[in-house]
């Protein structure tokens, strides 16, 4: 028994010695590794990028960057929040929506315009203090909703009771207008839910563009201040939209990181995403080529004189092909090219010329919400969507 215990302890001692030697060898091996192999993103703390009002936790999964892209990633990361402030949003404007039942949706525009106090409707001075602090210059309705409900200009003082009463009447006008619109476009409205339509339309008419002095404040500061007011339902940034987006993540444009001969993220590149054409003799064309369908292309406009598209352009009663929300006029001519490209993909005519669209018998409603650089803001794009709905579009395309 004594010899057995001695052998047992000798065995444990050998195991411990072996582990110690292994740890020492491993430590020396690690310290001798090239520095670039030790560049691990897992060792970096997770960071938060605020974009579009959301928090995104970023912790890349790979062990190291391609050597040429490492600094590019760091520079991009450090500048991401700054660029989002300067490029992504309107600097001096925000969307603001007042709570239902406050009566503010029918009087707010006039109160700012006539420099009157919100207190007479809300019963508190908070909004008046905010409006003065941030030098609010204008509250513009997001959409021209005169077709849904009549607006009236208020002269003199107005009570909270009167404002709320007018708001209720306006909601009923909106509900009646929705029913009338569904009657005008029965095919499109077969599956519509009128109560839901009226509810959403009321929210739109209760949404405004708040213009303020941005010289000494950030849009984030103004947004946070108004969100805390009990009469405000929501405040949102007015974001910029782009026809093209090229991510700055280093692996998006790198090749061969894993020994591959193709781009690392080939599945997200335009050439891959846009590959393949519909087969003309199969699929949807056997059932329909879009006859009678109106498609609103919300983009950089459409070249309505293009020989492959002009036969399929929609026109309103005045002969206009749509609307230009960038320049605020009735000529939605494309000055960039992307919108025409999209319109052709959708509805290029079957005429023996050029290409053919996937729905060559449909009609294109041209709504220009993006400028000649391919950029545009949410408020213009929202107006374009409203125009499409109000004028009978069956589908909107915002590719």
Unreliably modeled segments: 23-85, 272-282
- Please identify the structural class as seen in this structure: alpha/beta
Alpha carbon gyration radius: 30 Å
- Count of DSSP-assigned helices: 12
The chain-level mean pLDDT equals 77
User: How many E strands?
Assistant: 11
List the strand order in the largest sheet. 4-5-3-6-10
* Termini Cα gap: 83 Å
Can you describe what's shown?
Helix content is 37%, strand content 15%. The protein is built from twelve helices and eleven strands. The chain has helices at 2-31, 70-87, 104-113, 119-122, 126-133, 160-184, 194-205, 219-227, 250-253, 270-273, 338-347, 378-390; strands at residues 47-51, 54-58, 89-98, 138-141, 207-211, 232-242, 294-299, 322-324, 363-368, 375-377, 395-397. The radius of gyration is 30 Å and the shape is globular. The relative contact order is 0.11. Mean pLDDT is 77; it is low at 23-85 and 272-282.
Chart the SSEs and their pairings.
Layout: H1 2-31, E1 47-51, E2 54-58, H2 70-87, E3 89-98, H3 104-113, H4 119-122, H5 126-133, E4 138-141, H6 160-184, H7 194-205, E5 207-211, H8 219-227, E6 232-242, H9 250-253, H10 270-273, E7 294-299, E8 322-324, H11 338-347, E9 363-368, E10 375-377, H12 378-390, E11 395-397
Helix pairs in contact: 3-6, 6-7
